[in-house]
Amino acid sequence: MPEMNAIVLCPLCEGSGSEVFVGRDQLMGLPGDFYYRECCDCGALYQAPAPDAQTIAGFYPDNYLDHDQPPVTKSFGWLRRGVLASHFGYRSLAKGGLQRLLGRLASFFFYRDEVPFNQGGDALDVGCGNGKFVQKLSALGWHASGVEFSESAAQAGILAGLEISVGTLEQAQFAGASFDLITARHLIEHLPEPKQFMAEINRLLRPGGRLLIRTPNSNALGRRWFGANWYANDPPRHLVLFTPGNLTQIANQAGLQQSVSKTFTSPKIVLNSWDYHRKNSGKPSRKIGIMRVVSRVYVGLAAMLGRGDEIFAIYEKQ
Ligand SMILES: [Zn+2]
Q: Which is more confident, 2 or 199?
């Protein structure tokens, strides 16, 4: 059991929470029980007691998500380049009028979560791992760099010729108003102090600059269904799980305004959650036909209810 005098208040609003589940690491297999609470005031889910910095560092072995391997990015397909050129401002990515026209039509249905281009803009990917997304942003025409606290992951990207600072965002000590775009994809849920992070982002963005966030949605249908076995809980690495409202609230408090906030989901999360539920025994769910059908139904249902497993949000500095 956690020590009774340890800090167990919500890291977002300092409300009190009640324990909702005890998690085990089913991804990397680290030993231990990890206690999660749900805030009675704001609905955020958080690990309590919160681990200290040294403990957190131990949550990421060198082989975590293959981040110690060199980054490999796929080139963009013809239609995606059409969408990027016609809808998101990446004009040089499409050669002809047909590609732009079909891109414009396709943009209503596909590739809706791209980042609008800012010619000559500076982009920073926080928690960039081996720099795969830094490489993607560079290919799109950004002047892109990254910051990564795992030394082995950062070195893999640096060896591939990418500009990556090793350490936390705060340790990088970038000058204020240095970036037009900051991306934090599956990062903020790993941070012990998400409000401090938002304040730092607000300091680093130029006026009109954007913060793009992807993070699990604590209000997801999948979390209600699977409870402790929901894949996106990822204990012990996930310290705080947000509702879309939680995220917007801390962004606003830091001085950022919401421009996009939506949820989405994929069959992968429901299939992996089902595997966790079965303690990863037997055939993986993605190889079972009926489970693939169920996962498709789930994706449609979650979309209909606006309760997908992930939040995609963009915030702007005024
Ligand atoms: Zn709270």
A: 199
Lowest-confidence pick of 52-56, 237-241, 244-248? 52-56
Ligand 1 centroid vs 70 CA: distance in angstroms?
39
> Full-prediction pTM beyond 0.85?
yes
- C-alpha 148/C-alpha 151 separation (Å) is 7
53 CA from centroid of ligand 1 (Å): 22
Which residues lie closer than 8 Å to 237 by C-beta, 6 or more apart?
Answer: 27, 59, 60, 190
Please give the distance, rounded to the nearest whole angstrom, from the Cα atom of residue 287 to the centre of ligand 1: 39
| DSSP string computed for 27-91 | SS---S-EEEEEETTT--EEESSPPPHHHHHTT--TTGGGTTSPP--PPPPHHHHHHHHHHSS-G
Q: Ligand 1 centre and the CA of 263: distance in Å? A: 20
Q: Separation of 15 CA from ligand 1 center, angstroms? A: 5
Mean pLDDT taken over the chain: 91
Q: Give distance in angstroms: CA of 245 to centre of ligand 1.
A: 11
